[in-house]
Design brief:
Number of helices: 4
Distance between the termini: 13 Å
Number of strands: 0
Shape: elongated
Radius of gyration: 16 Å
Structural class: mainly alpha
Number of domains: 1
Strand content: under 5%
Length: 140
């Protein structure tokens, strides 16, 4: 296989992998917050929400579970199948992740330990960069 044919396949696999990583972590993290909106089960203190309109982590958990958990898993499946507009859907997930991290930092501040905001910010940027590249359709 030539490098010209291998590069789009590698990019597609990288994007699907990034979507799966985001989807699984978003689904599990969101579910944990839905089941325990206090955040205690995953070590997130409620005092991080002081000054925000939120009383607990239920709404962030719901958004995390649906928009950044289930949706990336669906998009990963659609990308792998080579479905139309799946790259646009992946781009939307990447932008949503970047917005999520930006809002999170604005509300709770930057948390360096653990560096999850940095990791997921980079993941969002990688998803965006991969999704805007042409020729992501899976070749037979």
């Amino acid at each position: 296989m030539t490098d010209a044919r291998r590069t789009p396949r590698l990019r597609l696999r990288a994007l699907v992998g990034a979507m799966l990583l985001q989807g699984l972590s978003g689904a599990f993290g969101g579910l944990a917050l839905l089941l325990d909106p206090s955040g205690a089960a995953i070590g997130i203190p409620l005092d991080w929400l002081e000054g925000s309109p939120l009383m607990d982590y239920f709404i962030p958990g719901f958004v995390l579970f649906t928009a950044l958990g289930v949706m990336p898993l669906i998009v990963a499946h659609r990308l792998w199948q080579g479905r139309p507009r799946s790259s646009l859907a992946a781009l939307s997930v990447g932008i949503a992740l970047l917005v999520w991290i930006g809002v999170e930092i604005a509300v709770v501040g930057y948390q360096a330990e653990p560096p999850l905001q940095l990791v997921y910010g980079v993941l969002g940027a990688v998803i965006v960069a991969l999704a805007v590249r042409p020729t992501l359709r899976r070749e037979p």
